[in-house]
Amino acid sequence: MQMGRRQFLKILGAGGAGLTATAMGLAPTPARADGPRPYKLLRAKETRNNCTYCSVGCGILMYSLGDGAKNAKPSIFHIEGDPDHPVSRGSLCPKGAGLLDMIHSKNRLQFPEYRAPGSKEWVRIGWDEATKKIARLLKDDRDRNFITHNDKGQLVNRWLSSGMLASSAASNETGVLDFKFARGLGMLGLDCQARLCHAPTVAALAPSFGRGAMTNHWVDIKNANVILIMGGNPAEAHPVGFKWVIEAKTKNKAKVIVVDPRFNRSASVADIYSPIRAGSDTAFLMGVVNWLLQNDKIQRDYVRAYTNAALIVREDYSFDDGLFSGYDEQTLSYDKKSWAYELDESGNAKRDPTMTHPRCVLNLLKQHVSRYTPEMVETICGTKKEDFLQIAEILGTCSARDKTATFLYALGWTHHTGGAQIIRGSAMIQLLLGNIGMSGGGVNALRGHSNIQGYTDLGLLSLRLPGYLNLPSDKQQSMAQYLAETTPKDVLPGQVNYWKNTPKFFVSLMKNLYGPYATKDNDFAFDMLPKWDRSYDMLAYFDLMHAGKVNGFIAQGFNPLAAMPDKNKTSQALSKLKFLVVMDPLVTETSNFWRHEGAFNDVKTEDIQTEVFRLPSSCFAEENGSIVNSGRWLQWHYAGQEPKFEARHDGRILGGIMMELRRLYREEGGACPEQLLHMTWDEHTYHNPYDPHPEEIAKEANGYALEDLFDDTGKLIAKKGTLLSGFGQLRDDGTTASFCWIFAGSWTEAGNQMANRDNTDTGLGNTPGWAWAWPANRRILYNRASMDEDGNPWDPNRIILHWDGAKWAGIDVPDFPANIPPGSPAAPFIMLPEGLGRLFSINGMIDGPFPEHYEPVESPIAKNPLHSKVTHNPTARIFQSDLQRMGNRHDYPYVATTYSVTELFRHWTKHSHLNAMLQPEQFIEIGEKLAATKGIAHGDTVKVSTKRGYITAKAVVTKRMRTLQVAGQEVDQIGIPCHWGFEGATRKGYLANTLSPGVGDANSQTPEFKAFLVNVEKLEAARS
To answer: Minimal CA–CA distance to 542: which of 527, 531, 553, 529?
Structure first.
């Protein structure tokens, strides 16, 4: 069978095919001379699951053979798309089409292995030996380095010398165990993939709207009139979800606009494409804000009623020459007291309904963005003025009540030192246009990994608790103080201010974590939580590791050597560990960081004294559990086979180590043993604490009534011991327990709501009977904002809710108290104390209440065109050890930006033979003009270098990368796909993060991967 790559991809992308090489007949089969080939799925067992890659959460059907007889284990042999799934409708992309090859990859780990200090090889060991050795190493390190009290004598109960990275594709139920494991030991060095991808989303959208998640859902994209794709490339990264962009375009005549440094696959089907310099997005968006305000293209009634445009800001707030009021040059931080509302004698924010007061938010915003003229946008971004004006005018049409725009973004916005403020800019535009809460509207963060939304929800970040609660700091020495400082006070009268229920969420969490050991008398075990003094996020923790201050580390389903910025620094950091534990289904670069791989990993193996444990875990197809897609849908999936070889479920691996640690602490004592022994991980919590079942963990995530619960009228609403029906039943008196309050309602007495499979469309693409969405199964957040104050829909053709005389009802669950009638003072943004969407974010952001353009730390231009004295973000995260590793524009004159390709997913699919065939070799994209200047031809090998290291790759010379005019000079950009490494089925390659700098976003500490400086040279000799 002969076909080209394009024909091959067309077959892979076909609607319901979900084909693998075997399914396509490309794999060799025995010759048959007699009769037709039998139906391949005959006698097969069908199991429903979800794709493990991006956040679309496509439904899949897995087929396995094995009749259930003794010693007959099922094995998955075919996978295809689930035609019933409302989002994917049977489609699978090239990544999903290779799922079978991933499950049966030759690089699946088969049994536990151990690498001794200085050794050049792995040695096979048994599970019992590995478990006992790891538990002993963890306990000894914890006992030696546990901090009970800080220098001020405050009780902190923290452990800093060992840490853990959690997965991004494991189930929520595994995530619950990850949290309990790490916090039960007092770890603060806990982080997950969200830190390296969408942490800026939460940091930006929560202060803007109240929640830090995708506002709408995948299918709702079809209802948009205008789709702005900026900071993402969904046709490439989320191909099946992108079908809803195409549906909006073909059936709704939507205008699709792409603004990106590259002419990418999304741009190829867009109506308008405009190039932009990587790292200048804030300037572009603030230019749009300025244009909308100057041309009165805002939904004025929405802005007045539902945003804080009319609220008055304190008199001492100011912005001058790149700095907001309160900046401290010594600490490189802001005192944010002046970033607040002016209050009246009752403590409420002052408001000017006419929006004419000089210090009302709207007028301060006009003043702030007045510098972002179309000419300035062209100067900073390199985007032609006429292109910018065309895009602004099209967006401006969506200020009409009967039109909506939706914004789609991903890592192209989050992977910047100012990523959170870029996203803030998009939120502000959508508030001005009146597009939040509307069908076809919203700011839609397209999460990159299948369950990174869930792991964010579960609080698996250094300073977080489940449900977006904050971990207490060492200054908060009592629960009363913690709750007083974290529970927001009312800002305007009559608002919902739902975060006022923080005490209910927190106490219910503590009852879940510590059960009978959490009582009113001991502040519900408040002292058992580790208290922080600073952030121990990935950048910070690996910097400590590099300084020799970390002894042990656990990497679960995570490949930090390939994912962290500045690979060479990361390698040096791992080399200073005493022990490393890797839990993964596959061979990763991190597990083999000590192995010399020539130029790809140039290390001296014998000098590396880190002892390494490699523990084989199950993959997505071998577990029951739930994952949360980008649209906040909790989808339950089922195992189609047992873990391969000697691999174990993550919960069983963690359970074994946890129970061995508990045994050691019971028998030997040690540092703060009650922190671990009082954690609910025993036979009273799980049927088998060595191997907890996902179903029982899912139920504890939902929550239970610990006593009979009554409503305000005395009516019994939940009996003792029953599952809660929603977070409205949570109490702050210890009578309820719930691990994650936003998951309450996901598994009730009516059953597992996450397993629901009714795909009935109730209107506008809403399918509330399919799976379960947090919060409370709402599909469109802030949907009360789809109507005016009197309950009349802004657009009669997009009616989501209506008042039926007693309550709000409609095609979606109201994101609003159901019994508060139209005309009441309560505004739709119920998670913010003022009830209003924030154009001015008050003190919610680290680096300013309005977004401001700052140059990337490595910039191709000499000065910031807006303010020459303040070129870079003054609060961006740069450690001293990284500062000397930054390059300058003279030695490294070109801008590099990393990206993904359709056929591969990060560093996973290079282990899938089918996907490796599609993209076997590392390449970079370089524009024709730069290539001609450098004498580089298509297919040449080039060397790309930064001050941190270099890679070599084949050059793809293309028109997709253009030379731009920026600040009076030419700027060339190159594109660097990020998928290759020295492990996998592809040809060996360099880790692209060798080039990227160790600098973090001021609000989320997410590293910069999208705008840094490089040099490019033609390599005459073939690479090694």
So the answer is: 553
Run of H or E residues at 292: helix 281-294
* Percent of the chain scoring above 70 in pLDDT: 96
- What's the pLDDT tens digit per position in 475-519? 999 999 999 999 999 999 999 999 999 999 999 999 999 999 999
Residues 220, 779 contacting (CB under 8 angstroms): yes
pLDDT at res. 234: 98
**Omega before residue 775 within 30° of 0, cis:** yes
CA pair distance 854, 322, nearest whole angstrom: 8
b or e along 215-233 (b: 16 or more beta carbons within 10 Å of the residue's beta carbon)?
bbbbbbbbbbbbbbbbbbb
**Which alpha helices (DSSP H) does 309-407 contain, by range?**
361-369, 374-381, 385-396
Q: Over the Cα atoms of the chain, what is R_g?
A: 27
Mean pLDDT of 892-917: 96
pLDDT in tens, 512-563: 999 999 999 999 999 999 999 999 999 999 999 999 999 999 999 999 999 9
Give me the sign of the Cα torsion angle 199, 201, 203, 209.
Answer: negative
The letter for the amino acid at 77 is: F
- The type of residue at 182 is A
The token duo for 597 is: 């791989």
pLDDT of residue 35: 66
Distance CA(738)–CA(758), nearest Å, equals 27
d(CA 692, CA 703): 16
Structure tokens at 215: 């506002």
pLDDT band for 831, please (50, 70, 90 cuts): very high
Of 139, 131, 135, the closest CA to residue 159 belongs to: 139
* Tens of pLDDT, residues 577-626: 999 999 999 999 999 999 999 999 999 999 999 999 999 999 999 999 99
Residue 446 corresponds to which tokens in the numbers above?
Answer: 């397209």
What pairing do the DSSP bridges indicate for beta strands 1012-1018 and 327-328? unpaired
Q: What's the pLDDT at 679? A: 98
The residue type of 979 is H
- The C-alpha torsion from 180 through 172 and 420 to 544, rounded to 10°, is 40
Q: Kindly tell me the burial class for residue 70, based on how many C-beta atoms sit within 10 Å of its own C-beta (0-12, 13-18, 19 or more).
A: exposed
Contact 438, 455 (CB under 8 A): no
Tell me how far apart the alpha carbons of residues 622 and 100 are, in angstroms, rounded to a whole number.
12
Q: Please provide the average confidence, as pLDDT, over all residues in the chain.
A: 95
For residue 1021, name the pLDDT band (cuts at 50, 70, 90).
low
**Other Cβ atoms within 10 Å of 336 Cβ, number:** 18
pLDDT of 564 > 80? The answer is yes
Q: What is the C-alpha separation between 273 and 394, in angstroms, rounded?
A: 13
| Helices (H) then strands (E): counts for the chain | 27, 44
280, HSE (Cβ side, Cα atoms, 13 Å): 31
Q: What is the 3-state secondary structure (H, E, C) of 776-807?
A: CCCCCCCHHHHECCCCCECCCCCCCEEECCCC
User: Reduced to 3 states, what is the DSSP secondary structure of residue 149?
Assistant: strand
Encoded tokens for 651 = 């919960």
Q: How far are the Cα atoms of 332, 390, 838 from residue 327, in angstroms, in the given order?
A: 7, 37, 22
CB atoms within 10 A of CB 466: 23
CA 644 to chain CA centroid, Å, is 29
Strand partners, 891: none
The answer to whether residues 591 and 584 touch, using CB atoms and an 8 Å cutoff, is yes
CA-nearest of 813, 986, 1011 to 898 is: 1011
- Burial (CB < 10 A; 0-12, 13-18, 19+), residue 165, is buried
Among 681, 685, 643, residue whose Cα is nearest residue 660: 681
If you search the block for the tokens 């919610």, which residue do you land on? 844
Instruction: Compute the distance between CA of residue 860 and CA of residue 895 in angstroms, rounded to an integer.
Output: 7
CA of residue 19 relative to chain centroid, distance: 28
